[in-house]
């Protein structure tokens, strides 16, 4: 597995950035542009989820339906899903501006999930 994919290696879960077939990661690019104070908030949630295995506070981690979850370091949202082998794949991110998640953001996460599963099954994701 390429090291570039790993966002955090925890005791319970490995948290990875999703990369499309062109090597682009919407979530990682979003993260890289954040100020350090906001990066620290997400990194803290990665530690909790990766090492403890669960975040009990729904204001910080919530199920959004269709096997998509949201890491919620205010004001940002990082969408992700769980995958075989104790992996959590972070697909995309956005800054929260309304009470509801934009449908296009969830759609991006669902498309990334399907692409990831297909490419893993075909043995070509980690090339």
Describe this entry's structure for a reader.
This protein has 127 residues and is an alpha+beta fold. The protein has one domain: YaeB-like fold (2-Layer Sandwich), CATH 3.30.2310. The chain contains three helices and six strands. A six-stranded mixed beta sheet has the order 1-2-6-5-4-3. It is globular. The N and C termini lie close together (8 Å).
| Strand order within the widest beta sheet | 1-2-6-5-4-3
Q: Return the CATH topology.
A: YaeB-like fold
CATH class: Alpha Beta
- In whole angstroms, how far apart are the ends? 8 Å
The count of helical stretches stands at 3
Counting structural domains, the number is: 1
Q: Indicate the low-confidence ranges by residue numbers.
A: none
Question: What is the N-to-C order of secondary-structure elements (H for helix, E for strand)?
Answer: EEHHEEEEH
Summary of the model, kept short:
The protein has 127 residues and is of the alpha+beta class.
Q: How would you describe this structure in keywords?
A:
127 residues, alpha+beta, 35% helix, 27% strand, globular
List the helices and strands and how they pair.
Elements: E1 6-9, E2 14-17, H1 26-33, H2 36-52, E3 61-65, E4 68-71, E5 76-83, E6 87-95, H3 103-121
Parallel strand pairs: 2-6
Antiparallel strand pairs: 1-2, 3-4, 4-5, 5-6
């Amino acid at each position: 597995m390429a090291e570039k994919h790993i966002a955090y290696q925890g005791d319970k879960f490995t948290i990875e950035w999703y990369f499309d077939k062109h090597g682009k990661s919407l979530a990682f690019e979003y993260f890289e542009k954040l100020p350090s104070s906001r990066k620290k908030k997400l990194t803290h949630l990665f530690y909790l989820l990766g090492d403890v295995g669960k975040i009990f506070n729904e204001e910080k981690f919530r199920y959004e339906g269709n096997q998509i979850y949201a890491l919620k370091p205010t004001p940002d949202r990082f969408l992700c899903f769980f995958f075989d082998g104790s992996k959590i794949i972070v697909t995309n991110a956005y800054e929260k501006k309304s009470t509801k998640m934009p449908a296009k953001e969830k759609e991006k996460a669902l498309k990334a999930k399907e692409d990831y599963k297909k490419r893993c099954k075909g043995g070509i994701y980690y090339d």
